[in-house]
Amino acid sequence: MMQYLKWVAAAAFLAFGLLQGTTTAQAQNLPDDFVFLRDLDPSIQQDIRYAGVNNFVGRRLDGYDSADCVVKRTVGLALQKVQRELASQNLSLKMLDCYRPARASRDMVAWARDGVETPAQKRYNPSFSKKDLFRLGYIAEYSGHSTGAAVDLTLVDLRAGPSAPFNPNKAYADCIAAEAQRAPEASVDMGTGYDCSDAKAHTASSAITPVQRRWRQTLVSAMGRQGFVNYAKEWWHFSLPGVASRAYDFAIARGTR
């Protein structure tokens, strides 16, 4: 019996080692110093919207086969420093989009040109048609996200209670409505929902409350101290200059985590 138990323990240990080796090998398949952010800082929350249905397209985008934040290592280390600073304020970053496969940007382009716009999609651009997203600078065929040096993110108040889950069948108000009427974000109230294509989502918008403005400034300041630059039309979008310029198109694949 003792010999049998030793054999079982040895087999379990070998299986665990093989599993760990497989996971490590898979993680190392990322090219050119890309990393999974969870490997650098698992305390940073993640809600990768384009890997599900809670986004302006209403479905998973091509290339998002796993809901994981992937970034260049330099970007990940800078985000880790931001997270450490925010922790002292009982705040956390929450990643909404990180590396974006180029195929996903092409998927967005095809969606914007398909001539169909549902009420659920219209929530994200309440003031104009989706065909104008290109002209107004909200969608581009090339995205800095595909370099691994750009991220979309928000803040979570760690002292706040749980948020209601997103219900894809519920008719939420548009992204510029009051927080209680919008789709739940499980984050602080920045004045609009994520991916809201509207002047109210411009970082310096005067159409938001003082409290919402302070939240935006808290995020911009914390990110800025680590070298991140905000995109003025989107309070959630930041990039780290000088890290990368080449666009990539590898999928964020299932089984890599």
Would you kindly provide a written description of the structure presented here, covering whatever features stand out?
The structure is a single chain. This protein is an alpha+beta fold and 257 residues long. The strands form 2 sheets. It has a 5-stranded mixed β-sheet with strand order 2-4-5-7-6, with helices on one face. The longest helix has 26 residues, at 2-27. Helix content is 29%, strand content 11%. The chain contains 6 helices and 7 strands; from the N terminus they run αβαββαβααβαββ.
User: Which assembly state applies to the chains in this document?
Assistant: single chain
Q: Order of strands across the biggest sheet?
A: 2-4-5-7-6
The termini sit apart by 37 Å
Looking at the overall shape, the CATH architecture of the largest domain is: 2-Layer Sandwich
The H/E string reads HEHEEHEHHEHEE
Which percent band covers the strand fraction?
5-15%
CATH topology of the largest domain: Muramoyl-pentapeptide Carboxypeptidase, domain 2
Number of domains: 2
Biggest sheet, in brief?
Answer: 5 strands, mixed
CATH class of the largest domain: Alpha Beta
The overall strand count is 7
**What's the rounded overall pLDDT mean?**
89
Structural class designation: alpha+beta
Which spans have pLDDT < 50 for at least 5 consecutive residues? 1-28
Q: Helical element count? A: 6
